[in-house]
Design brief:
Elements lengths: L6 H6 L3 H16 L6 E2 L3 H7 L8 H15 L3 E6 L2 E7 L12 H10 L4 H6 L2 E2 L4 H4 L2 H4 L2 H13 L13 H6 L3 H13 L3 E8 L12 E8 L13 E2 L8 E2 L10 E2 L10
Helix pairs in contact: 2-4, 3-4, 9-11
Length: 268
């Protein structure tokens, strides 16, 4: 049986507006990476950060719509301040409405107290490089490319390990279409963020020239797409994890993003 679809997966499946909400959420996690995990920046500022057209007008309206989507999923709380920008406060990324806490804090606590593996897995996180924001990659990436970037970062924990997927298991694990996977991967390669190569699989110790030779695609993010040294991100859970945590974005570099698990976006 398939597990529950994560809030951000449902948001992304909403099409073009859903992608704005996903990127805005990542930005909020970057910006709100310290207590009280809130911000009061105007909509036009977020529209400018995400490089939306007409940030003073239509761009700002798209940001407000995205805020409503995030609030509807229980990922943020909006407090109105008449005459001033609304206060946006992060909530637990599971969508439960609980108070937000950094995943590193939860993970360290669970590990120190020798929690069960499933509890540790719930609080795993990965790093998203701040240079992806400062160099404009996040702003420019399409929806499929953003989704695949998050998946690759989660699978290799941002450390540069090579990744490969089972053709059968990938859609079950992430709940995205082949079209999204192909388009997103191709864009990441084109932008120099990902390398892909085919690799032969040994048929066994007694294989012969008549045996069918299997091959698989191996993926590796380039240094530009990986966190290194002090170039961290914001803590929390981006596109997918039902239980994961994420970070913040806008005035300071990001810190850490929780590992993607289970259901990612379902539509293109």
């Amino acid at each position: 049986m398939s597990g529950p679809i994560a809030p951000l997966a449902r948001i992304y499946s909403g099409g073009r507006g859903g992608m704005v909400a996903v990127k805005l959420y990542a930005a909020l996690l970057w910006r709100c990476s310290a207590p009280p995990y809130s911000t009061e920046k105007p909509a036009r500022a977020w529209a400018t950060l995400l490089d939306l057209d007409d940030p003073e007008g239509n761009g700002a309206r798209r940001i407000k719509d995205a805020m409503k989507k995030l609030a509807g999923e229980g990922l943020i709380r909006i407090t109105e301040n008449p005459g001033f920008p609304n206060t946006i406060t992060l909530r637990d990324e599971s969508g439960s409405g609980r108070a937000y806490q950094l995943p590193s804090t939860a993970y360290t606590f669970a590990k120190t107290n020798k929690a069960k593996p499933e509890v540790l897995a719930r609080d795993l996180y990965f790093k998203i490089p701040g240079k992806l924001w400062t160099n404009g990659y996040i702003q420019e990436l399409s929806g499929p490319a953003t989704v695949m970037l998050m998946i690759f970062l989660a699978e290799q924990a941002g450390e540069g390990e090579r990744v490969w997927f089972s053709t059968e298991e990938f859609p079950k694990r992430y709940n995205i279409s082949h079209k999204t996977r192909a388009a997103g991967t191709a864009e990441l390669v084109e932008r120099g963020l990902l390398k892909v190569k085919a690799e032969s699989l040994a048929s066994g110790p007694y294989s012969t020239t008549f045996d069918t030779r299997r091959r698989r695609k191996v993926y590796e993010l380039t240094p530009m797409a990986r966190a290194a040294g002090r170039d961290l991100v914001a803590e929390a859970a981006p596109v997918v994890s039902p239980k994961g945590k994420a970070g913040s974005a806008a005035a300071s570099p990001p810190k850490k993003l929780r590992r993607l698990r289970k259901k990612a976006p379902a539509k293109d």
